Amino acid sequence: MGDIILTLLVTTIIINTLVAGATGNVLAKKKRKVFERDVVQGLGQVELEKELQILTCVYNPVEVSSMLTLARLSINGIPRNPLSIFLHHLVGLPKNYNSYTSFYNQRHEKDDLDDEDSLGHEYKDAPEINASVDTFMKETSIAVRQITLSSFFASTDTMHEIICQDIYDYYRTLVLIPSHKEQRYDGKMVCRNEGRRRLNLKVLKEAPCTVGILIDRPVTDGILPGSKETGTNTECSTPMSNITASYLHRVVAIFCGGPDDQEAVEYAGRLAMHPQTDVTVVRFLSGSRESNISPQDHRSLASSSINSEIAMIIHKDEEERFLDDEFMIKYQRRFVASGRVKYIEMYSINGTEIEAAMKSMVGMYSLFIVGRGRQPTAMLAGLSDWQECIEIGPIGDMLSSDAFMNCGSVLIIQKPNNGSANKEKSLTESMFQ
Predict the structure, then answer these.
(1) H or E element at residue 34
(2) What is the CA 358 to chain-centroid distance, rounded?
(3) 8 A C-beta contact, residue 218 and residue 178
(4) Do residues 282 and 347 touch, judged by C-beta distance below 8 A?
(5) Does this model's pTM top 0.70?
(6) Do residues 379 and 348 lie in contact, with contact meaning Cβ atoms separated by under 8 Å?
(7) How far, CA to CA in Å, does 228 sit from each of 222, 223, 253?
(8) Distance CA 276, CA 264 (A)
């Protein structure tokens, strides 16, 4: 009897050791992959032939078509790469609802959907969202994996934690979230829920991947009647909310300098790989074409300057300009030289001239892609002073204003955080304390 017990104990110890070792190995590999995933900073390090792991988030049925269309255009038009889009339906619970639930399957019980007072009106949108997703899958033959997340829109909510955990677990490359601003029937943008803005700020601060905030304009498509180019059935532009595969989407990316703008232009290049997009990159350079200072002139000016503070500013501008030039040279080799992307340079000395140039583009494109601009250049000084929403940057804030009501949808891109997290945290806490 004692020998049997001893044998069982030894066997149990051996099995536990093997299981614990295997489990620890799996966890270590997972952590190692997460670490390696964190090292990848930006879309530029992901090969064009590889599929982007995209997570889209929506609050209501109106946002579904635009989000899914944007995700579809990101597959580079390579049919051999199967795409599965992940869509999170975000539901903000009211304050009097005292429980938190994460749903990983759609709820079909009628009683659960009828209790609008306790669960919020977003649950009532579930059937319409399901219908929109079904229509998209039928039109495009692309699978959509749908998840419903519910949480409180309060300072202690955890919805952003679930989104970020999803990014870590499935190695997302890009997450697309809707702006807190929605378009009214008359075309103006209004804020209907301040909790959405808090959520966006937290995702921007915590997300380890590229983040895009979409300001959707389903009422005004951004294409004026006189600016449409007709021809074949694929030569007329269409708003992002149109999922029909027989239309061309005209996209413009704005580049003023900095890591976020580089990421925005990089994403525009990926959209240009799709046959149903027409992409233009507009780069704003400081000064005029005649008075533009070369890097050599910057160095000599910095070395001869008596004021050390001025010299430091010139040196910093020179370094940033060098990085932007280096990025754009590589970008032109990849996309512009092949004819996939059109490239335009414009010169301006301040935000007022940039605003005037942007107004001249209204009616030409259905989607504007801009960087968040966490490192604003001297050109944006006039715009940064009066921006209302820091999470969409000075250019995004300008394009979301009523003065640009007909400019179409706007996508604000932020490059993965690499040292700006502390600054983002202080900004977020100061705004919502």
Answers:
(1) helix 2-39
(2) 21
(3) no
(4) no
(5) yes
(6) yes
(7) 10, 7, 19
(8) 19
The DSSP bridge pattern shows strands 341-348 and 277-286 to be: parallel
**Statement: residue 262 has pLDDT above 60:** yes
Q: What distance in Å separates the CA atoms of residue 170 and residue 407, rounded to the nearest whole number?
A: 35
- Picking from 229, 191, 340, the residue whose alpha carbon sits closest to that of residue 274 is 340
Rounded Cα distance between 83 and 168, Å, is 19
- CA–CA gap between residue 281 and residue 227 (Å, rounded): 18
Structure-token pair, residue 68: 């899914």
Measured from the Cβ of residue 257, the count of other Cβ atoms closer than 10 Å reads 27
- Sign for the CA dihedral angle at 335, 336, 339, 341 comes to positive
172 residue type, one letter: R
Name the band, by pLDDT with cuts 50, 70 and 90, for residue 304. very low
- β-partners of residue 278 are 250
Taking every pair of Cα atoms in the chain, the longest distance, rounded to a whole number of angstroms, is 98
The C-alpha angle 88, 89, 94, rounded to 5 degrees, equals 130
Does an H or E element contain 371, and which? strand 367-371
Specify burial of residue 125 (Cβ count, 10 A radius: 0-12, 13-18, 19+): buried
- Report the amino acid identity of residue 257: G
pLDDT for residue 110 is more than 70:
no
Distance CA 182, CA 152 (A): 20
The DSSP output letter for 424 is H
Q: Which of 270, 294, 230 is nearest to 71 (CA)?
A: 270
219 Cα distance to chain centroid = 21
Q: Which of 97, 90, 186, 190 is nearest to 146 (CA)?
A: 90
DSSP for 239-301 reads -TT---TTSBEEEEEEE-SSHHHHHHHHHHHHHHTSTTEEEEEEEEEES-TTTPPPHHHHHHH
Token pair in block for residue 188:
């103006």
Residues contacting residue 372 through CB under 8 Å, at least 6 positions apart:
204, 260, 391, 392, 393, 396, 412, 413, 414
For 19, 63, 273, the CA distances from 244, given in Å and listed in that order, are 52, 16, 18
Q: Which two tokens stand for residue 362?
A: 């209204």
Q: How far apart are CA 197 and CA 189, in angstroms?
A: 14
pLDDT given for residue 147 in this prediction: 87
Residue 103: burial class (beta carbons within 10 Å; 0-12, 13-18, 19+): middle
Q: How far is CA 415 from the centre of its chain?
A: 9
- Is the confidence at residue 102, as pLDDT, over 80? no
